[in-house]
Write a structure and sequence with these properties.
about 375 residues, alpha+beta, ten-stranded mixed beta sheet, nine-stranded mixed beta sheet, 7 helices
């Protein structure tokens, strides 16, 4: 399910209208050894991202971007109703040329949960289930808007046969900022996109400005301080599903509000829920449509929440582990799991179901 996207951007990356990235410093990493309540050893690395892409381990990297990546201007000129339009806009902000880009990928599975933190504040957990891929964590500090940390599957982006990782680091960061799949901002507002297996898609047409799945996430991270603001923002735009995939969004804020945003017959429907997997939650004819495994994961997480009204970060990690792909004997893996602390504004990443090794990044 791939769509060709043509883009004028550059190999040497001399920027004309886009300014970005402060002076280069080395990524800092401090290792902390901790024990869980059960006495299990766990390694947590504290990561301070740099403007150069740093590989944390095979398939997971991190980068920082500071400055203007043109998103306000993207919205002001009407946004885009397709992935092609997004890439064409990004290309117009850069000079020179990459021959062509592709945005595409197979359907993916995800699980999220929102819960009160035993130690104060609230927590949001997220699994991204897909084939083995290259994940890029982007710490963004825009000139306007909220700072955030988001994640992109770089394998969704291909450059006409050229390995996207061969592009300059700043180019990868800018492209990735327009293609996030999840993240949290400095207000503790978190968002995730989860796929729904359905032949329908989302193509709103009410003459409002346009956003795609990934640019909707960018909009929310840049501008929403809480769920209410996030919903108000979404209502101001016509939503178009990236790659033609039916999706819903999980939104969660630092006050403990959590909802699923779904589009049924192109109408936005909001359902309060602490758990989101990969089936429709909205009441009506679509309710429950999705994979059987997504129902199983939903039930596991709901039962976990029933047993524990509050959780620690370790509890969230273990809950994500309980619904990771190695429990179901399928070829996909849980490529990344994230525990987001909405009080401290820290995200801890676990890669490919190695829950003994965490990478913690602060939004602030």
């Amino acid at each position: 399910m791939k769509k060709k996207l043509y883009m004028a951007c550059m190999m040497s990356l001399v920027f004309s209208a886009l300014t970005g990235c402060s002076q280069n410093t080395n990524t800092s990493e401090n290792t902390v050894q901790t024990k869980t309540a059960e006495g299990e050893n766990m390694t947590k690395n504290i990561i301070i991202p740099d403007t150069s892409i740093t590989e944390l381990e095979d398939g997971l990297s991190v980068v920082r971007f500071e400055g203007n990546y043109g998103f306000d201007e993207f919205l002001e000129q009407g946004g885009a109703s397709s992935d092609e339009g997004v890439v064409e806009y990004v290309g117009s902000r850069l000079s020179s040329n990459i021959p062509e880009l592709l945005f595409g990928g197979n359907p993916f599975g995800c699980s999220t949960l929102s819960v009160e933190n035993t130690e104060g504040g609230n927590l949001f957990g997220r699994n991204f289930d897909w084939n083995t891929c290259n994940g890029l964590i982007i710490s963004s500090r825009p000139e306007t808007g909220y700072a955030s940390v988001s994640t992109v599957n770089m394998d969704f982006i291909q450059a006409g046969g050229l390995d996207i990782s061969k592009l300059p680091d700043t180019a990868q960061a800018i492209i990735g900022l327009y293609a996030p799949l999840d993240g949290m901002n400095e207000k503790g507002f978190a968002v995730s996109v989860n796929m729904i297996e359905d032949t329908d898609t989302i193509e709103q047409d009410t003459k409002k400005p346009d956003i795609t799945t990934t640019t909707a996430i960018r909009l929310l991270l840049d501008q929403a301080a809480n769920v209410e603001e996030g919903l108000n923002l979404l209502e101001q735009y016509d939503f178009h599903a990236s790659m033609g995939m039916m999706v819903h969004l999980a939104l969660s804020d630092a006050d403990g509000n959590s909802v699923a945003v779904e589009y049924v017959d192109n109408e936005m429907i909001v359902t309060e829920t602490p758990v989101v997997t990969n089936f429709y939650l909205a009441e009506g004819e679509k309710n429950g449509i999705g994979t059987s495994q997504s129902h199983e994961r939903f039930d596991i997480l709901s039962e976990t929440l029933d047993k524990k009204e509050t959780m620690t970060e370790t509890d969230i990690r273990d809950a994500l582990d309980s619904v990771s792909k190695d429990n179901f004997g399928e070829f996909e893996s849980t490529e990344w799991s994230i525990v987001m602390n909405q009080e401290t504004k820290e995200l801890t990443y676990y890669h490919r179901e190695n829950y003994g090794q965490g990478y913690t990044i602060s939004v602030q």
